[in-house]
């Protein structure tokens, strides 16, 4: 069973943290090449401080495109619409500026970085994010508690980033990064992908504990499966089909999806 969740925030009392208005996105192509079709076709989303929003949709609906676009991936081109974070239009901001401002993306397939240990990566990222130049010893002490919470061996931080990591280790490492870097908004792109039920529960517990430590942090969960939602209990669920959010609701929407599949949401798309 999932742990009891903290009392939900009153959305009407919380400041707007993040807004996507009329977002249209297509894969980037080389100059002079023929443009390709849009993947996102007018997506709208508002996240207030402390809220958890889940984005669900079938393969090819644009879920991962959304996650990468929100962090400024050069692989995608915004053709219309805007991304606003804490009142600033960040649509044209590069990835590093968004990260410094407090946006975090946990990747579906985290990249390996040979020769750079987890502790070195965290030190560099924390310095860029918050201007805090912690020593390796100070940072090691800070990570120890989170490694225990995430069922990670204490030697984990000395390994090269994601090199030889299992799927569960990669995802737990992403959650630890989220805890240490203290973002204002966390975008978790299919964090449950490739995890067995035990590993998923550990990762979900870590997400809940980071939220408990930072109750004003907004979270956008991009997922295929209800099992992560059962563990995290999001405030809002959105169904993404054909590059647009076609329906929004609460946990009852995930239950409807479990019963009927995505076909019932494709009418008129």
Total helices: the number is 8
Q: What proportion of the residues is helical, as a percent range?
A: 25-40%
CATH superfamily of the domain at 15-111 and 183-265: P-loop containing nucleotide triphosphate hydrolases
Tell me the β content: 25-35%
- For the terminal residues, how far apart are their CA atoms? 36 Å
> What's the Cα radius of gyration?
18 Å
Q: Please trace the helix and strand order, writing H or E for each element.
A: EEEHEEHEEHHEHEHEHEEH
At the third CATH level, what is the topology name of the domain at 15-111 and 183-265? Rossmann fold
What is the molecular shape?
globular
CATH architecture of the domain at 15-111 and 183-265, by name, is 3-Layer(aba) Sandwich
User: Can you count the beta strands?
Assistant: 12
Oligomer state equals: single chain
* Class from helix and strand fractions: alpha/beta
Low-confidence stretches: 1-9
Can you describe this structure?
The strands form three sheets. The chain has a six-stranded mixed β-sheet with strand order 6-9-10-3-11-12, with helices on both faces. A four-stranded antiparallel β-sheet has the order 2-1-4-5. Strands 7-8 form a two-stranded antiparallel ribbon. With 269 residues, the chain is α/β, with parallel strands linked by helices. The chain is globular and about 50 Å long. The relative contact order is 0.18. It has a domain of 180 residues: Rossmann fold. Helix content is 34%, strand content 27%. Helix 3 packs parallel to helix 5 and helix 5 packs parallel to helix 6.
């Amino acid at each position: 069973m999932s742990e009891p969740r903290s009392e939900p925030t009153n959305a009407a009392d919380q400041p707007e943290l993040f807004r996507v208005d009329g977002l249209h996105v297509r894969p980037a192509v080389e100059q002079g090449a023929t443009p390709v079709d849009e993947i996102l076709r007018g997506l709208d989303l508002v996240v207030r401080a402390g809220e958890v929003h889940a984005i669900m949709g079938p393969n090819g609906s644009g879920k991962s495109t959304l996650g990468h676009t929100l962090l400024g991936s050069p692989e995608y081109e915004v053709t219309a619409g805007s991304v606003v974070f804490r009142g600033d239009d960040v649509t044209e901001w590069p990835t590093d500026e968004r990260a410094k401002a407090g946006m975090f993306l946990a990747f579906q397939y985290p990249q390996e970085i040979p020769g750079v240990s987890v502790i070195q990566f965290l030190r560099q990222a924390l310095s860029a994010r918050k201007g805090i130049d912690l020593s390796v010893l100070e940072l090691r002490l800070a990570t120890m508690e989170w490694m225990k919470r995430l069922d990670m061996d204490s030697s984990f931080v000395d390994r090269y980033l994601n090199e030889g990591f299992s799927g569960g280790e990669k995802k737990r490492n992403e959650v630890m990064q989220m805890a240490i870097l203290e973002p204002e908004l966390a975008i978790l792109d299919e964090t449950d992908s490739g995890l067995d039920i035990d590993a998923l529960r550990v990762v979900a517990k870590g997400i809940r504990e980071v939220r408990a430590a930072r109750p004003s942090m907004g979270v956008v969960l991009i997922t295929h499966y209800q099992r992560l939602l059962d563990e995290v209990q999001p405030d809002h669920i959105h169904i993404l089909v054909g590059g647009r959010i076609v329906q929004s609701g609460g946990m009852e929407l995930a239950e409807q999806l479990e019963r009927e599949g995505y076909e019932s949401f494709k009418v008129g798309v």
